[in-house]
Every structure is written in C-alpha cells, then in structure tokens.
Write a structure and sequence with these properties.
Layout: E1 2-6, H1 13-16, E2 28-30, E3 44-47, H2 53-66, E4 69-74, E5 77-82, H3 85-94, E6 101-102, H4 106-112, H5 122-137, H6 147-164, H7 166-173, H8 175-178, H9 186-208, H10 218-228, H11 239-270, H12 272-285, H13 301-314, E7 323-324, E8 329-331, E9 334-336, E10 341-344, H14 346-350, H15 389-407
Parallel strand pairs: 1-2, 5-10
Antiparallel strand pairs: 1-3, 2-4, 4-5, 6-7, 7-10, 8-9
Amino acid sequence: MWVLAQKKRPFLAAELGQEGPLDVRGELFARGSGGGVEGSNERAAVRRGGATPGRVAERALLSERYGPVYTLHLGPQRVVVLCGYQAVKEALVDQAEVFSGRGDLPVVFRFTQGNAAPFDPTFLISRAVSNVICSIVFGDRFDYQDGSFLTLVGLINQNFQLLSSPWGQMYNIFPGPMSCLPGPHNRIFENFEQLRQFVLERVKMHQESFDPNCPRDFIDCFLLKMEQENQDPLSYFHTETLVMTTHNLFFAGTETVSTTLRYGFLLLMKYPEIQAKVHAEIDQVIGRHRSPSVEDRSRMPYTDAVIHEVQRFGDVIPMGLPHAVTRDTHFRGFLLPEGTNVLPLLFSVHNDPAQFKDPATFDPTHFLDPSGGFRKHDAFMAFSAGGWASLRTLGELVSLPDERTNLSPGV
C-alpha cells in the first residue's frame, strides 16, 4: 500500500474553528506539533506493507518530518499515530481514561464475538511458556508430549504466523471484503474455535470437581465469582467470559513471552560478556540446586536489567495494541472525535534518544543506577501503559519469572 503525505487542509473545521490533519482515504497527512505545517506543498511516498520492525521504523521516521502526532489511513480506517515517549505518555498515562478504549482489530473482533547439532528452539520455548500459563489457569502442567497440549501450542503458533502474514493484515484493513474471500486467513478463525473448545472442555472438568472452599487456580476463582454473582443480571462473570479470558491468556501470553525469550538467547550469545555477568549473579544468588523464586528478583539487579533491556531492545510488539478515544478529545492541538483509533508506536518510545542514552545499542545499564542497582524507567512500555496497566501487570507476572527461570543454568 502507498501512504502519501501532503499539505494540510481544514479537518472538522465547522465544529472546531481550527485546522488539523487532512482526512483523505488512502493518504497520510500530518502537521507539526508546533502548529505549523512541515513539508507543505510536497508529496512524500513511502512504500508500505506489513508491520515488520523495518516498516515500523519508517513510521517513526515519518514523525521526524511531520511531528509526533499524525494521521494515516489503513484502507478505509483512519488511525492517529503517536510517536516518541512524550506523545505516547501524554496519551496513555496522563490522559489514560480517555485513551482507554479498545481500538479496531477486526480479526480479534470477529472471534470474540542439549545436543551440539543446531536446532530450532521455537516450539520448545512455546511449550515451556504455555505450561507456565497452564499452571496458573488450570492448576497443573501438561507433559510435553501430550497430544492435546501439542495441538494447543501448534494452533497458537500457526495463528500468530497467519496474523503476521499479508492475508491476516489485509483482513484487519479490509475486514468486509476479506471475510467473503477464500484464503489462508480463514484458518485463523478455525484455529480460534479449536482453542475455544479446548478451553471449554477444561472449564467443564473444573465445574465437575469445583470446591468453593478450596479454589485451585484461575478457573476455580472465576467459578467462585460466578457463584457469588449468579443473581446479578449485570455481572460479567459467566461461562463465555471465562472461556474467552482463559483463551486470551494463552494466545497473548504464549507467543509474546516465547518470542522475547528467543531474542534473549540470541542477544546473550551475541554478547557473551553480558551472559557471563548474568550467570555469575544467578550462581551467587540462586545457585545450581534450586529453582528461582520471585523473591530473588530484588537481589538480582543485573539480571533484572538484562531482562528489561531484552524487552526494550527486542520490542516484540513495536506498534502496541490499537487504542480508541472514549469521547471527543483535544490532544496537542487536534480534536480526536469519539471512537478515533489511536496507534501508540511503542517502538518510538523504546528508541527515543531523549529517554535512552544509546537506544540502538543493547545495554543493560539503561536500567541500572550509578551504584549498580536496578532502576525503573518510565519509558519502558513493553506491556503498554496507563489505563491498560493491567496488561502490563499480567505480562510481567507471566514473563519475568518465566524468563528468569529459562536464563538460569542447570535448572
């Protein structure tokens, strides 16, 4: 798809009495954040395709000419793009409530309605991560050779590949026409349904053995809440919500965490001196005869910093998840009508030189203070920010202990 930039013209001028980004299908129009027009009377064309890191970088480069807030069209859908830490923070943190709406993602919307020889660790890591989620949700783990478990992980991996393919991206841009066409994108929804049935079977098994006085896992806690609110017609706690929430935990958690781990292994092989420091700290704090625990985290600042830097540098969700404004909102001189989709480029936050001294370099000191202690960074948004902080909390709950376990030698 070609994305074009042109000079501005009035946008909702009758309502606002002001000027803003031009609203033309198939084109990108931008105004500098200072109020003037950057690149007036010129037309810039950027050849675009899917949301690969290189193409996300192109969107970040567009902000250098057109400012940190600009509008683009993905097919018939208008999206406001936010670039850089300050713009993303101002939206997702400072105005968290109004930017807390869920943006359009048609594919998801449709559903919710040891040897020396080289080997590919992708599927093995996915199984390890999925089993961590299984222990939280189902209360136990699967054998790595269990047929049902292998099917679950295979469906999740296949769906992420399909979602990242041109077919999946075209569906998100043109959901109407694509829903009528044959093609591999239809497999996404078949896989989703198989995943839903898998989770539903596990829920039914829990219902048969449910003891409200002794909840075993996430499903039991949800069933207990359903029992407590079974007379409330407005309750959100019912079976279908439980099935979809459990499914989302698997689908969102497995691929993101396993991909982050693969980035971590690659980076530690590329930088053996960093790997050696991590191993030394693990040996000192944990040793080689027990598993890591969450309590170890505060005593392992360097390992914690490396994990955060892997997430920042790897940036596995560079475009973030689409948001939407919940009411008409004035933002940096623009009026964003209620329902406007907003795309916070997390890539631009994690690579903002005003926030990280050398963002193009893998450097754990980005998260260390001068004394070597772990330092939190406001510009770290691997799991979103602001009103969607629950996603970040859940992501950290699943990913950080899991990553630390996988980085531990001899465990």
